[in-house]
Amino acid sequence: MMTGENDTPAVAGFRGAVPDLEGTLVKLGEIADASGVRAQLLNADLVYGPEHILAAFNAAARALARGRSRASELAVELVRYAAGQRQIGAALSKMGVGEGAGDEERIACVLWPAELDLAIASGAHSLDTAGSVGGEGGAEYAVKALEEISKAMGWVRDDGVLPGDARVLQRHGFKEAHLRMFTEEQYQGLILERVAMADLRK
């Protein structure tokens, strides 16, 4: 069983252009395979900090391990939970990176060891829902892969795109009047609750 920092997902932020989404995803897959990792890109404007992604990862992993997932791949199920959606198509449309949006696309990239997919599917991995996210891209296994992604895509590493604010919550459907009932310290709890309730949403 894998344990420790190197079996938790690593989350990193980038800024850059995505002029060809299909080509970007192909290139990402090639880098991930060569680095022994799995990778998923998300629109950082919909991400409320690394903890949001960790919660979605753990929820997706539990669903797969229990045979209750809607997607057959951890990467896709992760997006579904991060979006707080039951439907895969709606989640991908909501959380996916854009295409041709200029040179300042805000991108969140989440990585995890490829062998973790098998460990989760077989029930051989014990998930730590209170764990940290590998130092926001600092996990040893992820460092080289993130450098390769930055170089190949021409993206600038910027973890400053990851922390959330009220605008992120509004993009997830929270109304301004609703948010006024909470303090900023409570905002993260709102998005984590949305992740946990994804399977109950229409």
How would you describe the overall organization of this protein?
By secondary structure, the chain is of the alpha+beta class. Helix 1 runs antiparallel to helix 7. Helix content is 49%, strand content 12%. It is globular, with a radius of gyration of 16 Å. About 4% of the residues have low confidence. It has a 4-stranded antiparallel β-sheet. The protein starts with 9 loop residues before the first strand and ends in a 6-residue tail after the last helix. It has one domain: CGI121/TPRKB (PF0523-like, 2-Layer Sandwich).
What structural keywords apply?
alpha+beta; 4 strands; 4-stranded antiparallel β-sheet; 202 residues; 10 helices; PF0523-like
Q: How many structural domains can be distinguished in the coordinates?
A: 1
Specify the overall morphology. globular
CATH third-level topology: PF0523-like
What is the number of beta strands? 4
Termini gap: 36 Å
Strand content: 5-15%
Look at the structure and name the CATH superfamily: CGI121/TPRKB
